[in-house]
Design a protein that fits this description.
This protein has 706 residues and is an alpha+beta fold. The chain has 19 helices and 26 strands. It has 2 domains: 313 residues, Orthogonal Bundle (ABC transporter involved in vitamin B12 uptake, BtuC), CATH 1.10.3470; 318 residues, Neuraminidase.
């Protein structure tokens, strides 16, 4: 390896470029920018203002933050539903007045004052919700009107009753505790804000009404077509916003024990700025309560910090306006270009040097030399199938195969002319196997491991395994379950080809070349799926050895076959038994003579082998060229290879004409014939094997006679 190649290997294999794409692909990545902004804001003002982090200063600031966060939480719910609420400030002010009036003018208990604040908030919220949700008025204009009316009503009440509130001699210990007391070092307003935020988060992410709010915000027409009550959902979002403003009004009433002309003034600007700066979309359907809370912290610290530094109201308003403009611009641009950015950074190829291989050219002295032996096969289901990736036969000689339409087709013996849809899985059935009871098992692409009973009942067995502690992507989910086999004890061994891409993106995985494939086992007794081995370059076919003590599995893009030991002194370990093949291995199955059949889905080419040593070239290729012009593994020529338990190649079958089986993804021996499948084929081939045992079948080999 030259020094240049060694440098490339270190650069692309050990610097984790792919982490950038993985982080940006996660939904929580949207929280990174507001979180960083919040950290910078708090740290900046903490250093600029003496005593910023003193306990007394923090207690007062957190009380304001608690009240403000509650308002922002309610407004966030409305924004997620696709609306806007400008009236939060007037609702907040009226709820404050209702609370202080109930206690100091009418002498009511504290709980009545609390109910009065909630009643005011929910009433105004219901008015907004009815006008916007049921009468379909514009949210901006409607809440602007209620803002003006509510503010005017508040000003009238303050002018007429403020003196009576100030002159009242009524006191209440409960009222004072809510305003100034602490529980476990936290003020009541902060505790209330935390409780409301948690409830709102759980409701939005784990309940049907919350999902409806997000669906309505994403697309009202689609939500309506899905059967969601759009008007009722919009109505309830405004009621929730009003309720939150009412609770916040009650808390500030307890803290200040009064209300004045400036109560709630410009609160709507602060709240909207906080929600948007936190990352909640003005278009609806995208955001979270956590983002709203982070935005509230940013805005409140910024607002109070500027005041403490001696800047006037005009400066505050200008800064808030600039923050809002920047947040809106970022939101629109990111929403529009997120997929483009991901396409630019997600695919991160690594350096890989393929080993020297023997020739596969016809009439060469190599054991891999291809021929035209499977170009002359009988056709089963010609033109009636699409993508039979794997084939298998049962004890009654019936033939089963999957199709890309999600169906498993059964062809009836002995002539295989008549067929039926045996089951519909909902995904693309790939690897197939029968267990001892005759239940058909299948790896369904991007869905998981499934079982189809004799009565055709489809059951999901597994869709995930344990997650790696160091993984950013959710590698617990089975993204590309590929092939499987069943052990004597009923445990199911199967491969998950890649943790970064779904089955249909196999070409991108081959270009990237990262070892993200793995071997897993599902135990039907416990219902658990465990990862046995990982870090393989597209783990593929699986076949249990004839003695049941080990299994073979393919590593497609590395052109290798490995043996994993289930029992014996090597139990739990794997060793490479075939390496540097000229073809890409796929499914592996037993042969009647004690050996093993292996499919080649395609052949190595010098151009792609060279490209694997130039990750920068592949990176530029994926960014600058359309996908149909990419250089990826050749899948136009393949074949079938037989090997023994030690990895020695015994014979090779091919189709150099390209007429019958140019690409082979599976084969299955049954009573002297080899049944050949291909994921890009429209047929199953039937090839007579010279000298093969005419009575040998897979079910007998695995489970014995009937």
């Amino acid at each position: 390896m030259s020094s240049r190649e060694e440098l490339q290997r270190w650069r692309f294999n050990f610097i984790p470029d792919h982490l950038i794409g993985e982080i940006l692909s996660k939904r929580w990545a949207d929280n990174a920018i507001p979180f960083l902004a919040m950290a910078v804001t708090v740290a900046g003002f903490g250093m600029a203002i003496p005593g910023f982090f003193k306990p007394l200063s923090l207690v007062e600031s957190t009380r304001q933050l608690g009240e403000f966060s509650i308002v922002v939480t309610g407004l966030t719910v409305v924004m997620l539903a696709g609306g806007i609420d400008l009236s939060v400030s007037s609702i907040f002010a009226l709820a404050t007045f209702a609370s202080v009036a109930s206690l100091f003018i009418f002498g009511s208990p504290v709980w009545v004052a609390f109910l009065a604040a909630i009643a005011v908030g929910m009433t105004f919220g219901a008015v907004n919700g009815y006008l916007i949700g049921y009468l379909r008025l514009r949210a901006f204009l409607t809440t602007l009107v209620t803002l003006v009316i509510g503010r005017a009503l508040y000003d009238i009440l303050i002018i007429n009753f403020a003196a009576r509130v100030q002159q009242s001699d009524i006191t209440s210990d409960i009222w004072d505790f809510i305003g100034d007391g602490k529980v476990l070092g936290l003020s009541v307003s902060v505790i209330t804000a935390i409780v409301i935020a948690v409830i709102a988060h759980v409701a939005l992410t784990r309940s049907r009404p919350g999902w409806h709010i997000l669906a309505v915000g994403g697309s009202r027409r689609s939500a309506h077509n899905s059967g969601i009550r759009v008007r009722q959902t919009v109505f309830m979002s405004y009621v929730i916003s009003g309720l939150c403003s009412g609770i916040a009004g009650f808390l500030i009433a307890c803290r200040l024990s009064g209300a004045g002309p400036g109560t709630g003034l410009n609160l709507e600007i602060l709240a909207i700025t906080a929600a948007v700066v936190g990352g909640n979309s003005l278009g609806g359907g995208r955001g979270s309560v956590a983002k709203g809370i982070m935005g509230a912290i940013i805005v409140l610290v910024m607002n109070n910090g500027l005041i403490r530094l001696g800047y006037g109201t005009g400066t505050n308003q200008m800064v808030l306006g600039l923050m809002l403009a920047a947040a809106v611009t970022l939101d629109i641009r990111w929403l529009k270009n997120r997929d483009k950015v991901l396409n630019e950074v997600y695919v991160a190829p690594i350096y890989h040097k393929m080993g020297e291989t023997q020739s596969a050219l016809p009439e060469s002295a190599s054991p891999y030399a291809l021929n035209n032996r499977i170009s002359r096969t009988e056709y089963i289901g010609l033109g009636e199938l699409e993508g039979p990736e794997d084939v298998i036969l049962d004890r009654d000689d019936h033939l089963y195969c999957g199709t890309r339409h999600g169906e498993i087709i059964r062809f009836f013996a002995p002539d295989y002319k008549r067929w039926e849809v045996f089951a519909h899985t909902g995904g693309f059935p790939l690897g197939l196997a029968f267990d001892r009871e005759g239940t058909l098992l299948s790896c369904v692409g991007a869905m998981g491991l499934y079982a189809i009973s004799k009565s055709r009942e489809v059951t999901q067995l597994s869709a995930e395994t344990s997650r790696s502690y160091t993984s950013i992507v959710d590698d617990a989910r089975l993204r590309d379950p590929n092939d499987l086999d069943v052990g004597p004890d009923g445990r199911i061994y199967f491969t998950d080809s890649t943790t970064r891409y779904d089955a249909h993106d196999w070409a991108i995985d081959s270009i990237e070349g990262r070892p993200t494939g793995r071997l897993l086992v599902f135990d039907p007794k416990t219902g658990e799926t465990k990862t046995l081995l990982d870090n393989y370059r597209y783990a593929n076919g699986v076949c249990l050895a004839h003695d049941g003590k080990s299994l073979f599995f393919a590593e497609s893009w590395a052109c290798r076959v490995h043996r994993y030991w289930i029992e014996g002194p090597k139990a739990g370990t794997a060793e490479c038994v075939i390496k540097d093949m000229p073809g890409y291995p796929d499914n592996i199955n037993r042969a009647s003579d004690g050996n093993y059949w292996m499919a080649w889905l395609g052949m190595r080419t010098p151009s792609f082998d060279l490209a694997l040593r130039h990750p920068a070239f592949r990176k530029r290729m994926t960014r600058r060229l359309p996908q149909d012009e990419w250089l990826f593994p050749n899948i136009n020529t393949g074949g079938v290879v037989k090997f023994d338990a030690d990895g020695r190649i015994i014979e090779t079958l091919g189709d150099m004409t390209g007429q019958s089986h140019p690409m082979v993804t599976s084969m299955r021996e049954h009573k002297g014939y080899l049944y050949v499948g291909g994921i890009l084929n429209n047929r199953v081939g039937r090839y007579k094997i010279p000298g093969a045992d005419p009575n040998w079948t897979g079910p007998i080999s695995y489970w014995g006679p009937k």
